[in-house]
Amino acid sequence: MKVKELKLSAKSLFLPLFLIFVCCISGCRKNHHSKEEGNDRDLTQIKDSGELVVLTLYSSTSYFIYRGQEMGFQYELSEQFAKSLGVKLRIEVANNVHELIQKLLAGEGDMIAYNLPITKEWKDSLIYCGEDVITHQVIVQQGNGKKKPLKDVTELIGKNIYVKPGKYYDRLVNLNNELGGGILIHKVTNDSITTEDLITQVAQGKIPYTVSDNDLAKLNKTYYPNLNINLSISFDQRSSWAVRKDSPELAAAANKWHKENMTSPAYTASMKRYFENSKMMPHSPILSLKEGKISHFDPLFKKYSKEIGWDWRMLASLAYTESNFDTTVVSWAGAKGLMQLMPATARAMGVPPGKEQNPEESIKAAIKYIMATDRSFSMIPDKQERLNFILASYNAGLGHIYDAMALAEKYGKNKLVWKDNVENFILLKSNEEYFTDPVCKNGYFRGIETYNFVRNIMSRFESYKKKIKS
């Protein structure tokens, strides 16, 4: 009887033990797959998936959207690198450096494409790779005029320097202590003013000096040639791209690609586009005041402006601001022709391949684009007011204007009025506090260009009306 009972007991125990064993095996496999699908993703898995997921930050030197097109120096390098691997690029944007690293370690991206400072803190978790970029802080000052630019840090004593709180302010305080005091440091705590705003103020002569990283200073010098950025005030800081520790093959591929492509035409073109080529266009006014001609293209402006109900002189003012009536010009961003349409926009608006610099084709396409944009702002009842939004969108792209409208509404301003309302928020789109706001869908944007763009066109239009008969 006892033997029988023992056999029954063994049988009764077998099934639960078997089920536990199966569950353990299943759990192990599940954990294994979870790891494979998460962080354990190196070059082989990336190539198999056909996609490289790159993490970066919104900024004028890394990634932004301009006229509906992804742009930025780090973006272009990432695109070139992805192409060399034979995969597509997908960009994921973080809000700050800490989040950038956390997303990478969590497996939300394969690589950080941003000038990430190389520090001991993250050396156990990351492999730094790609180009070893050397950055340092510089004094931004005017480089021409009666006043000679400062050439030595000792000359900062007695000078007024305006900086944002953080690393620039901290460096100035340390430098001031090293020099025994005397630098007049002004901490700019206004959240709506960015470092790039301060650089603009230096260029315009509103403040004498500010401080910036040298790469940001170089980019802004392409907008303001009168700047001098030669005086360094900090030690060099190394920075580069980064991948997780479990992606050594990807790191090696990035190192190899950077080494082989530093002098390639594509790399050189990107470097020049963002940090060397001037983004200022020389302007000449009216073709012939005596003959009442704004440009050689007046007949085309008169012909096609009727289709959108514009005064032809407004269309001429837009063209002048865009291209200076030069049909061969190609902007730093790749926009072409008289009306400076981006290649994708030109194709969408029906410009035949190779005809981007044909003045009539350019104007016809611009008219189509303006008509489409007009429909996108149908919620603005006043036609004259809507014109401001159309012009702003022509410069910035629809998405950034929608973001500025959403911000205006959130902060109690009229989202259907441009001047002193929405235009103030397009300015704030270069400020991290605002472009990371949940109501913004398109990230960083250098809004001062659009702010000035609309005002300049309207001002020029008024001048044309006074000088040129309709």
From TrEMBL:
Membrane disposition: Peripheral membrane protein
Annotated keywords: Cell outer membrane, Membrane, Signal
An example Gene Ontology CC term for this record: cell outer membrane
Superkingdom classification of source: Bacteria
Name this polypeptide is given: Membrane-bound lytic murein transglycosylase F
Source organism: Bacteroides faecichinchillae
Pfam families: SBP_bac_3, SLT
Major place of residence: membrane
Segments forming domain Solute-binding protein family 3/N-terminal: 54-278
Subcellular compartments: Cell outer membrane
SMART domains attached to this UniProt entry: PBPb
